[in-house]
Amino acid sequence: MGEFTGKIVVVTGGSKGIGESIVRRFCEAGAHCVIVSRHLDECQALADELKAAGMTASAFACDVSKVAQIKNLVADTVKQFGRIDVLVNSAGVVRRKYAVEYTEEDWDFIMDINLKGAYFCSVEVGKQMIQQKSGAIVSLASLQNHINTKRSSIYGCSKAGIRNFTRGLANEWADYGIRVNCVSPGFIVTPLTENIMDNPAYTDMITSRTPLGRAGKPDEVADAVLFLASSKASYITGADLCIDGGWTAS
After folding, report:
1. pLDDT in tens, 2-34
2. For 173, which of 24, 144, 178, 184 could close a Cys bridge (C-beta 3.0–4.6 Å)?
3. Domain CATH code at residue 48
4. How many domains does the chain have?
5. pLDDT tens, 210-230?
């Protein structure tokens, strides 16, 4: 994957969980990663660790639910590096409740970060990629846009929206050499899921319903994202790659 040497890769939600693994994979492949989240201290700590290991990264604080902050992220990145080669939309949140318990504030919180944030990050970065006539965007959807388990109905809506706008942008931007794809991870062990992974009912459900018999690892998602952003996936756009241990095939 030496093709990423010198490439500028923006990863939202890049300071922890799947996003952190994605950042590490791209940096190992030679890219400069702009690590983005609402928590600048976490982003900076990861950037410092990567630089100490001989890689290159920088930190940026951005709340992707705020379009003005997204615009600043893109403008500052282009001003500093001159281009953006890859965008990975990894920022995401979840609140697990039964549908009758959700509030309007829950809807706004989840949808603003997961769907609105991913869409407008893609649009603002896409404007730069259109000028460049090149680029790759990979967004994290979810198994929950193919199925919808209990206590995740709003989360599932937000991730289904990602799958849909991925197709729309792939169609609109193909003429500019921009590829837009998404991945749909199944149950992956991360800080976002650790509370349910401690629940035997959930772990039994995951192992019994997943043909590979286990939850996934963040690196297994990161490897797929790296592939979709690479020239090895040059004829892939508008796709949704399930990384779910076979759940959707069972």
Report:
1. 789 999 999 999 999 999 999 999 999 999 999
2. 178
3. 3.40.50.720
4. 1
5. 999 999 999 999 999 999 999
Residues 6 or more apart whose CB falls under 8 angstroms from that of 152 comprise 94, 96, 144
State both tokens at 213.
């018999």
Triad 141, 202, 91: Cα angle to 5°: 25
Q: Answer for the pair 18, 218: CB distance below 8 angstroms, yes or no.
A: yes
Please report, for residues 19, 38, 47, 225, the alpha-carbon distance to residue 50 in angstroms, rounded to integers and kept in the order given: 14, 19, 5, 19
Does the predicted TM-score (pTM) go above 0.90?
Answer: yes
**Residue 155 designated active-site:** yes
- Check 102, 119, 155, 202 and give the catalytic one: 155
- Picking from 15, 1, 23, 17, the residue whose alpha carbon sits closest to that of residue 138 is 23
Which range marks the domain in which residue 156 is found?
A: 2-188+216-245
Q: And the tokens for 127? A: 């404007």
Q: What is the DSSP code (8-state) at residue 245?
A: T
